[in-house]
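Example record

The entry below shows one chain as it appears in the dataset: sequence first, then structure tokens.
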Amino acid sequence: MRRADLGALVLAAGAGASAWLSLGALAVASNGVARTGALPPLWLLPMLMACAGAGAWATRLRVNEAWPLTLTLVVWLPWLPLRVPAAFFVWEGALEAVLWLTAAGGVATARVMARAPSQAGCATPGRASRWAAAIFVSCSLVAAVSLQGWLPGGDEPHYLVITQSLLHDGDLKIENNHLRGDFLAYTTQDIPPDYLRRGQDGEIYSIHAPGVSALVLPAFALAGYPGALALITLLSVWAVAVVWRVAFLVTDSASAAWSATAAMGLSASFILHSFTIFPDPARRLEYRDTSVRRRWRAALQRS
């Protein structure tokens, strides 16, 4: 048996131990410090570890395919026999399922990439960038559904009111749009004008820049608020695909491209802005390092 296989067995056995902990229940006192846990029978621990190891052996899992199983060690955080931060307790509950699904999906993806990367399309710029976009869309959709009922929120209605003023009146004077209640097309809240003072002509102009409002205007005219959201999401998806391709062209490494794309596309700020009407998804990235700009420009010209 080669060392790589031994490493996969160790990782699988560790995942089996994590599964044993996941079957337990942990209660936290109101002070957030004292904990009471109920663990499964002890005989189940070696059984789960043996079953996980047997599964790794039967599938000839290698360590370069099994490394996503290290994610399951997060399950141990709330069970550590010492005083732990309150944030550790989020891994005791519904998020455990997300963690296990992520680990299983990671193993499946790593296995495909290790054995047939070209066929899987995970290492070729054309297919991989589309895969990255598809993964991002899935994450964005899950986040959007979980926040349904809260949106539009924040400054979103104000940007949309500017869109309606441009669409219906052909100007940026928003007072009449608020008086008519144009915002009731996408929210039930009363949205007062967001301004500092009236202009020299006595009219109210929003303190928010109208760039994104003008950008989503055609989509809003066709399909209202859902159309505007769809356009913003498409822009975000395009950005994810471009980041993968540019990172690959600069580094000539699929792994580096995936790492760069995940660091940007799976961040909370990027995901949450991918389905909201804010300027951030459409804002142009600025790179002040001229050497980086030159490398990116040269890479794009080579493509």
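Notes for this example: The chain has 13 helices and two strands. The longest strand covers residues 25-28.
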